[in-house]
Amino acid sequence: YLRRCVEGNRHFNLAVGIKPGTLSNGLKYSLATGNWGDQKKAMSSTAGVSQVLNRYTFASTLSHLRRTNTPIGRDGKLAKPRQLHNTHWGLVCPAETPEGQACGLVKNLSLMCYVSVGSPSEPLIEFMINRGMEVVEEYEPLRYPHATKIFVNGVWVGIHQDPKHLVNQVLDTR
């Protein structure tokens, strides 16, 4: 049907081209088994994509929802992927990890960690420039030796003389 529509330069109707049962059954299979992919090609599908949510206690449910998985083989004896890196400070819980082969490969986000949706940095930088931030290219260390550095998404974008006031303005606008 798709080939005929493309070759004949006709409009493609999704309801006619794909049976609704095919999509529904595929999603049901993938969510039920955790194997993401075609049911007939189970060997090439990705395993462990979906899991049953742990509901034993409220704390175990929160822990299960905040779990991250490092996608490397469990049987390897590599130590580096299992260790916490300095950049994980405040983001990953240093104590909670399973025992056995998955030790250190399954990590949990810390309780106060907040994951935000990515957004462009330019509007925020323009907002702060209009509120007295000096961009890093124009910064003179001798003129402002005690200025506070401002980072946006890990990039040093400027300095400010009154950081508390700037933070309050950004939070009020948010």
From TrEMBL:
EC number, as in UniProt: 2.7.7.6
Top-level EC class as recorded in UniProt: transferase
Any Pfam family hit: RNA_pol_Rpb2_3
InterPro entries named among the record's database cross-references: DNA-dir_RNA_pol_su2, RNA_pol_Rpb2_3
GO molecular function, one term: DNA binding
GO BP annotations listed: DNA-templated transcription
Any single GO CC term annotated in Swiss-Prot or TrEMBL for this entry: DNA-directed RNA polymerase complex
Keywords: DNA-directed RNA polymerase, Nucleotidyltransferase, Transcription, Transferase
This protein's record includes keyword Electron transport: no
Domain RNA polymerase Rpb2: 51-115
Family indicated by similarity: Belongs to the RNA polymerase beta chain family.
Official protein name in the record: DNA-directed RNA polymerase
Organism: Trichoderma sp
